[in-house]
Amino acid sequence: MLKEYKTITEIVGPLMIVEGVEGVKYEELVEIETQTGELRRGRVLEVNGDKAMVQLFESSAGINLKDTKVRFLGKPLSLGVSEDMIGRIFDGLGRPKDNGPKIIPEKSLDINGVAINPVARDYPSEFIQTGVSSIDGLNTLVRGQKLPIFSGSGLPHAELAAQIARQARVLGSGSKFAVVFGAIGITFEEAQFFIDDFTKTGAIDRAVLFMNLADDPAIERIATPRMALTCAEYLAFEKGMHVLVILTDLTNYCEALREVSAARKEVPGRRGYPGYLYTDLSTIYERAGKIKGKEGSITQIPILTMPEDDKTHPIPDLTGYITEGQIILSRDLYKQNLMPPVDVLPSLSRLKDKGIGKNKTREDHADTMNQLFAAYATGKEAKELAVILGESALSDTDKAFVKFTTAFEDQYVAQGFEKNRTIEETLNLGWELLKILPRTELKRIRDEYLEKYLPSGDE
């Protein structure tokens, strides 16, 4: 029999203080019954002697201190998991919201999970094809990697996320592939866009969606990414699937953390975010990876909007330390209507070298990737020079690099959100573009690959 307490002494925002409690544990689930009989949920944030601080998942409006009963359930927040979750849509706390039947769980898992033991980790080394040239060709995603997308307010990260979720696949593997999509604090319009896109294209058949909307309680936002990752861990490590986890938008998650931290009267860190923001983000990101001896894997693409497009803001800054690179969306490319507006020069995938080459993508991938990067950077510099000194100041070689840069942005980067390119198409397009440059400038590619792959009509 659970004990009931009627000893609430204080409610501040989403926090409630209950006194005279016994045997209460950190992270324990709490049931609150209001004076009208309505049930709300919360979790224990802090225990000090016989006082417990409870964080409410719903609003605290209408709670009467004297007549409200509190029950501590003796278990953490958990998610009932089953393979039947694939193809379904849930809210931020794992409750079905697609009018489908209730899930009959195979087991119930604590959503806080555990980070993968570094000794048990297997090194990520298999290529994942997203169908997006600027990622596949230049900032390759590898199975088991954490590769965030740094976006800005108003940029089309939602369209890019939907495109990757729709197109991503592991080449040359017979294993099942699933996408777990966690939406954190997004608008109803954005949520509807994702649901419609997944349904229309059939991507929903291999996806699990967790939707936390902007008008849902901020506290639910803190649970949503953990719900998504718990589902992903079950599918990957118990059902042997390759799981791609897309989380958008991590900035809303961090804002929710800041809100709770302020309500707890904690000493703020940089820009008002709690001092433990780095540690907290790592508990999300480090749940991606491969485990030795297990078939499945979790690959993560967290998406965050940088406030004021500032890469030094605490959220992108700390994310960059924990993850293995970043894909950066450019406002300049967006203004030129080049979609998806991926800025390839500051973007980086630290594990790309492990996922490309012979028997993975193609033998010439590394050389062409380095050459495209170098040529694009040289062409951008030549373009800036032309703005200052005029085009007449450019040599013929410089003009060829400028022509290459324009063609590269128009054809390679700007492929649109509907086009799905295989890795062969991406590599062949790279060779077509390199044809614009004099052969003597292709210094980063081995002669044998030039002979084999450079289209005829070069020089």
Automatic annotation (TrEMBL):
It holds the Pfam family ATP-synt_VA_C. SUPFAM superfamilies: C-terminal domain of alpha and beta subunits of F1 ATP synthase (SSF47917), N-terminal domain of alpha and beta subunits of F1 ATP synthase (SSF50615), P-loop containing nucleoside triphosphate hydrolases (SSF52540). Transmembrane segments: none annotated. One of its GO terms (molecular function) is ATP binding. GO terms for biological process: proton motive force-driven plasma membrane ATP synthesis. Residues 8-74 form the ATPase F1/V1/A1 complex alpha/beta subunit N-terminal domain. GO terms for cellular component: proton-transporting ATP synthase complex. PROSITE patterns: ATPASE_ALPHA_BETA (PS00152). Residues 131-349 form the ATPase F1/V1/A1 complex alpha/beta subunit nucleotide-binding domain. Residues 354-453 form the ATP synthase A/B type C-terminal domain. Keywords: ATP synthesis, Hydrogen ion transport, Ion transport, Transport. Produces ATP from ADP in the presence of a proton gradient across the membrane. The V-type beta chain is a regulatory subunit. Belongs to the ATPase alpha/beta chains family. This is V-type ATP synthase beta chain. It comes from Pseudoleptotrichia goodfellowii F0264.
